[in-house]
Design goal:
Low-confidence stretches: none
Number of strands: 8
Order of helices and strands: EEHHHHEHEHEHEHEHE
Distance between the termini: 10 Å
Strand order of the largest sheet: 5-4-1-6-7-8
Number of helices: 9
Helix content: 25-40%
Shape: globular
Largest sheet: 6 strands, parallel
Length: about 220
């Protein structure tokens, strides 16, 4: 078995392992409608896949209090943990590629803006939870770079780790703490958003992850 190029492969979830847009859009509109706000078209909501949920609601409704944002997030999660998490699909080739990486000796983990319990529910839903050593989840007010900082301080990851994601926020958080990054091009960021962040890798399909296990 070849030695691994990276000690930990740190994967984003939404837009990287799975396409969550139908569930996210339905849950956002569920929360907006409950509190009397206009609902949005699913296609327009695609740009909100990835960033923290509180940040999304602030951008959508403008002037608001933290209490209002918290209430919207809670109402969103009410539907998401019951229905929305399953309105999701695994991207083609992901399950097989994770299996091959594991067989090659890769240590894999998750770093997502979702709360850990919701991320774990999704991973279990797709029967891929067993591939990951740990799941780092976010919450209201927590940024991806703060998650990376905590994982670094806990020595769960190091400068030999690589963050793999579809949004610029994933790559910036990695670079801020000396990690390399890999950009997936099938998610919601796109090449125009990701290229300025100078990722070490570009992935056009999940099978391209196999290069991470090579010397």
């Amino acid at each position: 078995m070849n030695p691994m190029r990276h000690d930990v492969l740190l994967f984003d979830l939404d837009g990287t392992l799975s396409d969550p847009l139908p569930g996210i859009a339905a849950c956002i509109n569920y929360a907006l409608s409950y509190f009397g706000h206009p609902v949005w078209d699913e296609g327009v909501l695609a740009r909100f896949v990835g960033p923290p949920l509180d940040q999304t609601f602030k951008e959508m409704i403008g002037e608001c209090t933290q209490q209002e944002i918290s209430a919207l997030v809670l109402k969103y999660r009410e539907r998401y943990q019951q229905i929305g998490y399953a309105e999701n699909r695994l991207y083609e080739g992901v399950a097989e590629s994770l299996q091959r990486l594991g067989e090659a000796g890769a240590v894999m983990a998750i770093c997502t803006s979702k709360p850990a319990y919701l991320a774990e529910k999704i991973l279990q839903h797709f029967s891929i939870f067993h591939h990951f050593r740990f799941v780092s989840g976010g919450d209201i007010g927590i940024q991806k770079w703060q998650q990376i900082a905590e994982l670094t301080q806990q020595e769960c990851i190091s400068s030999r780790s690589v963050m793999i994601g579809d949004r610029a926020v994933d790559l910036r958080a990695a670079h801020q703490y000396g990690l390399q990054s890999g950009a997936v091009l099938w998610g919601y960021g796109g090449i125009e958003e990701l290229q300025p962040e100078s990722p070490a890798y570009y992935f056009h399909r999940a099978q391209d992850w196999q290069q991470l296990s090579q010397c």
